[in-house]
Amino acid sequence: AASAEYEAENATISKGVVESNHAGYSGTGFVNYDNVAGSYVEFTVNSAQAGSARLDFRFANGTGANRPVDVTVNGTTATSNLAFPGTGDWTNWQVATTTVNLKAGANKVRAAATGAEGGPNLDKLTVTTGSGDSTPPT
Ligand code: GCU
């Protein structure tokens, strides 16, 4: 398998802000989704070949309530309401996982909040493909 990491702070953000006030993130920060349904983070994921890919979203949720997101790939829903449950503290980071299909080349992977509280704090996305290579964007 091959893995590539995509920092949320480098992705396209709609209704969210990059912050760094809760320790334990990778890169230079994380995305704090606005507390509104439809807020999203969209990653451009390059895949060497078409096929299934595992998505690991690293996140923190310091509340007691789930902050689900719809995961879409190239505009089509791949996973509805992927759960981002409470992690106990905003500095406690965990991983939410789903598997999607990617096409060869560039893919738009969007994680859009479905609830009124928005998404979690999102640190990064790790994409793992089964047998081939996966190259991060420049
Ligand atoms: C707090 C926390 C933020 C978080 C926000 C939320 O303000 O400091 O990092 O994003 O709650 O509930 O979304």
Can you characterise this structure?
There is one protein chain. By secondary structure, the chain is mostly beta strands. The protein has strands spanning 2-7, 12-14, 16-19, 30-33, 40-47, 51-60, 69-73, 76-82, 94-102, 105-113, 121-129. It has a single domain, classed as Galactose-binding domain-like (Jelly Rolls, Sandwich), CATH 2.60.120. Helix content is 0%, strand content 54%. The strands form two sheets. Strands 1, 3, 4, 6, 9 and 11 form a six-stranded antiparallel sheet that branches. A five-stranded antiparallel sheet has the order 2-5-10-7-8, with no helix packed on it. The radius of gyration is 14 Å and the shape is globular. The two termini are 21 Å apart.
What are the key terms here?
single chain; 138 residues; mainly beta; Jelly Rolls; six-stranded antiparallel β-sheet; five-stranded antiparallel β-sheet; 11 strands; globular; binds alpha-D-glucopyranuronic acid
